[in-house]
Design a protein that fits this description.
371 residues, alpha/beta, Isopropylmalate Dehydrogenase, 2 domains, 5-stranded mixed sheet, 3-stranded parallel sheet, 13 helices, globular, isocitrate dehydrogenase (NADP+) activity, oxidoreductase, metal-binding, Isopropylmalate dehydrogenase-like domain-containing protein
């Protein structure tokens, strides 16, 4: 191969790579081959989180990848399949594995699960009595009766219980979050559903407010920004009519939904990035915010041409590696081009590989190296 006109950039710290599934796996390999390996001297700790390998290893590969993430402090993750009944049949799986994001976030104690909560699922097949019990470690803890502390049921029942440890760790997480807000110099809005119904969220809102008032209010005011809490209906209405310029803080499920609707207003989900910041302040997991693009993968499997947006996957790498990556304003994909050219024709957009090649050309120009 032609000798490059520059010396590869040396990355001292190893990086954990979590490979994924379907079309994003195809993109992932192309990005590594064209954008990563030619430019970086990098030690990659590779883990295959593709569904076949997760099934073959009884999902131990996911746990091993997170353990290495804690060791090396940086993980870059490709999109993965969360199987349903159809996927069980398609891949002949031994078990309906849950999303790898669950154990990844739980082990890393990431801010996606801001309250340090955990979920346990079980199915009850007959009538009975359900109790929620608290066992005190010391005798001086006053016993408090809880309304609805037991439930009798004869039909299908759904119970959700939330555990919120209001500890120094929670305050630390809030400080990390608010520090990020301060750096952006944007005002901050905390979105929570109706607090009159959920004491758990009410307590979180009060803790957030307390940390802000104690440690951050004067710093915010000095830079001309502020923090305020808004209920979900009010915040969504505000977001729809605003021009942006603020940081919107949500709990996990709200953020999952609202980020999608917000991103879709500006273009495809392929333009949205996702970074998991851990409470230690130094461990990060970067990933694309979209799925495995199954529809395009089916075309790819048949040998057809695809035009899949690779920007989010590229930025997963660039965020994880702390390198900026810029792409030419003159380069389009069919989902971007269709906003301008409708209907579009070939020649007005780039296919999957052509787009990555265009990013490579732009990167070479930025680095001042030969083609």
């Amino acid at each position: 191969s032609e000798k490059m006109a520059f010396e590869k950039i040396k990355v001292a710290n190893p990086v954990v790579e979590m490979d994924g599934d379907e079309m994003t796996r195809v993109l992932w390999k192309s990005i590594k081959d064209k954008l990563i390996f030619p430019f970086l001297e990098l030690d990659i700790k590779y883990f295959d989180l593709g569904l076949p390998n997760r099934d073959a290893t009884d999902d131990k590969v996911t746990i091993e990848s997170v353990e290495d993430t804690l060791k090396y402090n940086v993980a870059i993750k490709c999109a993965t399949i969360t199987p349903d009944e159809a996927r069980m049949r398609e891949f002949n799986l031994k078990h309906m594995w849950k999303s790898p994001n669950g154990p990844i976030r739980n082990i890393l104690n990431g801010t996606f699960h801001l309250y340090h909560n955990r979920a346990t699922d079980t199915v009850i097949k007959g009538p009975g009595k359900l109790k929620l019990v608290f066992g005190a470690n010391t005798c001086d803890v006053q016993k408090e009766k809880m309304k609805g502390q037991s439930w009798r049921f004869s039909t299908l029942l759904v119970l959700e219980a939330w555990l919120c440890p209001c500890t120094t760790l929670m305050s630390l997480r809030l400080q990390i979050l608010l520090w990020n807000v301060e750096v952006t110099f944007y005002p901050s809005h905390l979105l929570i559903v109706d607090l009159m119904l959920i004491p758990f969220l009410k307590r979180f809102k009060h803790t957030f407010q307390e940390v802000y008032e104690t440690n951050w209010k004067s710093k915010f005011e000095a830079t001309g920004i502020w923090y305020e809490h808004r209920l979900i209906d009010d915040m969504i209405a505000y977001a729809l009519t605003s021009e942006g310029g603020y940081v919107w803080t949500c709990k996990n499920c709200d953020g999952d939904m609202q980020s999608d609707f917000l991103a879709q207003g500006f273009g495809p989900l392929g333009l949205m990035t996702s970074v998991l910041m851990c409470p230690d302040g130094k461990t990060v997991e970067a990933e694309a915010a979209h799925g495995t693009v199954t529809r395009h993968y089916r075309v790819h499997q048949k040998g057809g041409e695809t035009s899949t947006n690779s920007i989010a996957s590229v930025f997963a790498w660039s965020r994880g590696l702390a390198h900026g990556l810029y792409w030419s304003r003159g380069v389009w994909e069919d989902d971007q081009g269709s906003c301008t050219y409708n209907p579009w024709t070939q020649g007005q957009y780039l296919n999957t590989e052509e787009f990555i090649d265009a990013v490579v050309s732009e990167l070479r120009a930025k680095l001042g190296c030969s083609a």
